[in-house]
Amino acid sequence: MELREYLAIRRAYNLVRQQMPSERRLTFVELAILCRMNVLARPMNTSEIAEYQGALRPTMTHRTKHLSEMGLMQRSKGSLDRRNVVCEITDDGKAFVYEACKNVCDVLRSGSVLSRTTPQRMCLYVDAMGSFACMSGDLVLLGLANSPEGFGTVSDLVLSLGLLQPTVSMSVASLEGEGLIRRIRPEDMSGRSVDITLTERGKERAAEIEEGVKTLVIRRKQ
User: Fold this and answer.
1) Angle CA(174)–CA(180)–CA(182) in degrees, nearest 5?
2) Segment 80-108, tens digit of pLDDT
3) Which CATH class is domain 136-214?
4) How far apart are CA 11 and CA 17, in angstroms?
5) Which of 27-41, 96-110, 181-195, 196-210 has the lowest mean pLDDT?
6) How far is CA 98 from CA 91, 95, 108, 121, 217, in A?
7) 172-184 confidence digits (pLDDT tens)
8) Is 79's pLDDT higher than 90?
9) Alpha carbon of residue 43 to chain centroid
């Protein structure tokens, strides 16, 4: 998968998610779980979903419970291992996947990247992307690494990534604490935003994330 495709889809879904009613709002990893089950067209147990996303079972239990409470997934005890819950996407879940993927496609139509992708094909993209953990902080690193100038402001990152400003600001503060980014403070601070750039460690981390994105393979068909 190309990085520009990855970033375009993540940005588009971030924008779509902001328009969803709060009670119907899913994280990208939650949407990916639904897409995975929609693509495989069969029930999955929690350990299988956890392996798909590289997450611990307690984390997956929390995610699948949320999806179940929303009526997008049905959970039931396994016949052999009662501790391993079997999950199956509901009709409402399938409708949610289609609508979300369609809305992502609509956002992408305003640009050139993936502008002709169908909702069904987008579901395959999200399925593949869900197997690679990339949180908001990682997106910020990628956004800075792929900035033509090599730096940007919080507002620039909000625009390029489709994230909310508080999310970007918290990610920036965390990344700065880890020594992955640094702030470039202008000599004259009057009315000017502070630019942010990657440190050498930050560049190395961004390159690692980009290599991970490139390993993602999109299925040709369902």
Assistant:
1) 85
2) 555 678 999 999 999 999 999 999 999 99
3) mainly alpha
4) 10
5) 181-195
6) 11, 5, 15, 10, 21
7) 999 999 999 999 8
8) no
9) 23
Sorted by where each begins, the domain ranges of the chain are 3-129, 136-214
Q: Do domains 3-129 and 136-214 have the same CATH topology?
A: yes
Confidence of residue 194 (pLDDT cuts 50, 70, 90): confident
* Radius of gyration of the chain from its Cα atoms, rounded to whole angstroms: 19
The token pair that represents 17 in the structure block: 């998610």
d(CA 53, CA 126): 12
Q: Which CATH number fits domain 3-129: 3.10.50.40, 1.10.490.10, 2.40.110.10, 1.10.10.10?
A: 1.10.10.10
Q: Are 11 and 194 in contact (CB under 8 A)?
A: no
Give how far Cα 130 sits from Cα of 10, 15, 72, 82, 193, Å.
11, 18, 17, 26, 34
Residues 6+ apart with CB under 8 A from 193: 153, 154, 155
**Helix (H), strand (E) at residue 203:** helix 200-214
Longest dimension (CA), the chain: 68
pTM above 0.70, yes or no: yes
| Cα separation values, 15 from 4, 74, 104, 114, Å | 17, 28, 8, 16
Please tell me the distance from the alpha carbon of residue 68 to that of residue 217, in angstroms, as a whole number. Answer: 28
